[in-house]
Amino acid sequence: MKALVYEGPGRKSLQDRPVPKIAASTDAIVRVTRTTICGTDLHILKGDVPTCTPGRILGHEGVGIVEDTGPGVTQFKKGDHVLISCISSCGKCEYCRRGMYSHCTTGGWILGNTIDGTQAEYVRIPHADTSLYPIPAGADEEALVMLSDILPTGFECGVLNGKVQPGSTVAIVGSGPIGLAALLTAQFYSPSQIIMVDLDDNRLAVAKRFGATHTFKVNGDEAKQRILNLTDGKGVDTAIEAVGVPATFEFCQGIIAPGGVIANVGVHGVKADLHLETLWSQNISITTRLVDTVSTPMLLKTVQSGKIDPKKLITHHFTLDGILDAYDTFSRAASTQALKVIIEAR
Ligand SMILES: NC(=O)c1ccc[n+]([C@@H]2O[C@H](COP(=O)([O-])OP(=O)(O)OC[C@H]3O[C@@H](n4cnc5c(N)ncnc54)[C@H](O)[C@@H]3O)[C@@H](O)[C@H]2O)c1
Ligand SMILES: [Zn+2]
Ligand SMILES: [Zn+2]
Q1: Structural domains of the chain sorted by starting position, each given as residue range(s) with its CATH number in brackets
Q2: Could you tell me the pTM of the whole model?
Q3: Alpha-carbon distance 194 to 159, whole Å?
């Protein structure tokens, strides 16, 4: 089968690999119909994720059709149409029982990280009963690809951890797919202001269309000043960091109101400064989270009922043969205006 393989920092290739086989009784093999590329895949290619070693098939998002199941799988059978969660969970360990699937002792974020992922014709899914979701008849497959990772990530790590409330003020730093997913799902709670911050004019224009009340381009200290001016000098109640570089984590520290929450979403590859000399007295909280995907069933209902339309995040389509072009397009978003790229595997 064809598969996109990580070969070490800055290197990847489309290779021919054996079709995966059932390795444990709770595994399923899924024929991938559609997958996509995440900002995290770009972090892996930068060398930011040391757990992902050369030779790994990348990808942790997708939808597909069950091809085979181990004898221990009871909820799915060959031919079932499924959504693949970016997080694998056994459902039984201490962390899973606490709803922290991302820290499952035999799962978590393993797909396209410590085991082979979804940017291939087939993928082996461990703990299939609790890591796959049935796709309702008539659902739009492409929209559901956005539920593997980006919608639950924006919602759980950004909106829920950031305690977005009716009438509150929110700044989302980073208007990539994750920041935009946080923007879409923050609106469940009717905050009074949602300010989007980015370097890229096109992404800010998209944010405006998706419901941002204000958009600011990062330009020296100006964006910070404008956010402070907008909030009577107080700053925002929730600052969501959706980039993953030191500058944006520090930016969030400069715009957080007393009592506010900085909700970090970004994957960081290097250390960032924490300005306790100014924040120690501000009653703020800082949260971090690896997405648990506990909200996936709820988000699926909001997509099915038309409350949110994640399909509008999709800008480009490729086939698996063209996945190197898909990476190129996705990684040059400023010039290609890419948000999420759909890769049709079969
Ligand atoms: N915590 C989790 O579980 C989890 C899950 C998925 C993704 N992530 C991470 O979330 C982050 C965002 O993912 P994405 O797919 O949207 O990535 P992306 O790279 O597409 O988007 C990042 C955005 O940040 C903007 N940006 C870069 N530098 C900036 C700066 N200095 N100030 C303001 N904006 C800046 C870019 O222009 C871009 O629009 C990544 O770090 C990704 O790895 C975390
Ligand atoms: Zn991801
Ligand atoms: Zn578990």
Answers
A1: 2-149+296-344 (3.90.180.10), 152-287 (3.40.50.720)
A2: 0.95
A3: 11
Residue 346 has pLDDT above 80, yes or no: no
CA of 242 to the centre of ligand 1 (A): 5
- Residue 122: Cβ within 10 Å count: 24
Is 80 exceeded by the pLDDT of residue 285? yes
Dist CA 39 CA 77 (whole Å): 32
Residues with CB under 6 A from ligand 1: 38-40, 43, 149, 153, 157, 173-179, 197-200, 203, 218, 242-245, 247-248, 265-267, 289-291, 333
Residues ≥6 apart with Cβ < 8 Å to 310: 143, 146, 147, 150, 151, 181, 184, 303
**pLDDT tens column, 200-230:** 999 999 999 999 999 999 987 899 999 999 9
Whole-number Å distance between alpha carbons of 224 and 202: 20
Residue 121 confidence (pLDDT) above 80:
yes
Mutate to test the pocket of ligand 1, among 110, 178, 267 (most ligand atoms within 8 A of CB): 178
CA dist list (Å): 308 to 1, 77, 144, 203: 35, 30, 12, 18
Residue at 63: amino acid letter: V
Report the residue among 243, 314, 328 best suited for mutation to probe ligand 1: largest number of ligand atoms under 8 A from its CB. Answer: 243
CA separation for the pair 41, 112 (Å, rounded): 8
Helices (H), 136-221: 141-145, 150-153, 177-186, 201-209
Contact 265, 162 (CB under 8 A): no
127 three-class SS: coil
Strand order in 285-287's β-sheet?
214-217, 193-198, 169-173, 236-241, 256-264, 285-287
Length of the chain as a residue count: 346
Residues 6+ apart with CB under 8 A from 29: 19, 20, 21, 22, 66, 67, 68, 69, 122, 123, 124, 125
Q: Compute the distance between CA of residue 151 and CA of residue 243 in angstroms, rounded to an integer.
A: 15
The Å distance, Cα 293 to ligand 3 centre, comes to 13
The structure tokens listed for 232 are 């009577």
